[in-house]
Amino acid sequence: MIPLFPSIFLHLILIFTVVNGEEDSIYEILKAHGLPMGLLPKGITRFDFDDTGRFEVHLDQACNAKFESELHYDRNVSGTLSYGQIGALSGISAQELFLWFPVKGIRVDVPSSGLIYFDVGVVSKQFSLSLFETPRDCMVVRDSELGNSIRDGELLAEAMAKSQSGKLRYELDQDSFGRSDM
Q1: Confidence of residue 80 (pLDDT cuts 50, 70, 90)
Q2: Which pTM does this prediction carry?
Q3: What does the alpha-carbon distance between residue 163 and residue 179 come to, in Å, rounded to a whole number?
Q4: Tens of pLDDT along 19-43?
Q5: Host H or E run for residue 169
Q6: d(CA 35, CA 169)
Q7: Does 13 or 129 have the greater pLDDT score?
Q8: What is d(CA 41, CA 133) in angstroms, rounded to the nearest whole number?
């Protein structure tokens, strides 16, 4: 007969090992969805992931990571994972020239192409997939340092989207105007 204390101790170790073995890191979840682990920076303190693909990660502080261009990560980043892409993304902004644009989605078109695309509203930014192989260190920034630039970028992206739809509407009106005269 096994003494009671060592038996309980061994069971607790077994339970602890099994429970911890089942929980993947957010980086492993990205990889399992056909995405590179380096899309999210180092320093994630907590994350939530559900069976619909919805995720939320929490960082200690907002920060920036340098790739070909700079990415800004808010304290909370969320989105919906499906194979090869993240949709409904919030909490990441990409810098272009001097403006910051919110990243609305990320997709890997064909993994063998070596390219990844960031949807910043009006256009998609294309990067080499190899840039995102490993999580990057993130430099802490205060939200106030970036706030106006991000708001300006959001306003510019919104204005450009409206301008593009207005131009398309104008072109359609011109086409239908010419046809009605015949």
Answers
A1: very high
A2: 0.70
A3: 24
A4: 344 468 999 999 999 999 999 999 9
A5: helix 143-180
A6: 37
A7: 129
A8: 11
Cβ atoms of 50 and 79 closer than 8 Å: no
pLDDT band at 110 (very low <50, low <70, confident <90, very high): confident
Taking the C-alpha atoms of residue 131 and residue 128, their distance in angstroms, rounded to an integer, is 6
pLDDT at 96: 87
- CA atoms 113, 119, 125, 131: torsion sign: negative
Q: What is the CA radius of gyration of the chain?
A: 23
Give which of 83, 71, 66 is closest to 30, Cα–Cα.
Answer: 83
Q: Which two tokens stand for residue 84?
A: 């090869």
The DSSP code sequence of 63-76 is: EEEESSSEEEEEEE
Tell me the C-alpha distance between 76 and 25, whole Å: 16
Q: Cβ contacts of residue 100 below 8 Å, gap of 6+?
A: 72, 93, 94, 146, 149, 150, 152, 153
The dihedral sign for the CA sequence 67, 24, 60, 101: positive
Cα separation, 135 vs 40, whole angstroms: 6
For CA atoms 39, 42, 47, 50, give the dihedral sign. Answer: positive
Q: Dihedral angle at the C-alpha atoms of 94, 96, 99, 100, nearest 10 degrees?
A: -10
